């Protein structure tokens, strides 16, 4: 039994409707199952007229939208989003092609408290499984990529709880190391996900076939990114572990845009913790006050646990860069930036920052031996 098996079932009982994954997957408020089953064929043929007719056919009356709960609204945005991305991939701005979709997107955004288009959560976690699965291409590799993102959602939800606990604790508290150990278990899911992606999705398929479906679209004069893996908020873990008080202009700018695509409770988490004191800073301050050669065992445990989390984050980012370099190499790439709006150079910078913080924590516990009198 994996950590996912333990965490995922609990989400469906949450009061937070965005965590009730099974209900969202099961919902089909637009009656879109049959139409979206034909979407890969429309995309294969680059059939813009058929895609336009399909989007127009799915657009609901605003009176119907007003009757939906959050779960139904999320499912509706999911299904409209598949056609938004498909039209843009084939050169059409979807809202310009089907203007009547604009007020519906805006109303769905208000009802779900999210951006007025689909996000990575709609495309992966809230996407039905099996024969109802919504895909742009219908290719096995697309299904694998969706699964790679889907498998980390429960662990990231759990990581928010442990990171919230971490922010309230000090390194001398035994709970500090415990919160970090639990966070490490949750973050390991990201490494498992990237390994699954490496094994099952080729860089050429992603770069040449799937990446064009994640292009930004225009909604009422504002550009909104497509369902990007960068919207999976590993940065929420960074925030409390090291980032909230260790700014980096490029990463800060990227986060400012990425936060917009998060769930409401995750945006609230970011707002609550972005001005806090990171675990790295807390540990560094505590260690600086220690004058004896032998550190208190609580501090040693906290340092080891913090270094472990940073090491896992570093491992994920190193493997992510490996994939990105291949997908955005000169002979494959169609775009200069990733689907989340970040260039490969920024991934390198964040990896370096993660490595620097790991080194800082590791070296801080290597205290010099007292000199003989």
From TrEMBL:
Pfam families linked: PrnB (PF08933)
SUPFAM superfamilies found in the cross-reference section: Indolic compounds 2,3-dioxygenase-like (SSF140959)
GO terms under biological process: L-tryptophan catabolic process to kynurenine
Top-level taxon in the UniProt lineage: Bacteria
Recorded GO MF terms: heme binding; metal ion binding
Entry protein name: Monodechloroaminopyrrolnitrin synthase PrnB
Source organism of this protein record: Streptomyces lavendofoliae
Upper classification of the organism: Bacteria, Bacillati, Actinomycetota, Actinomycetes, Kitasatosporales
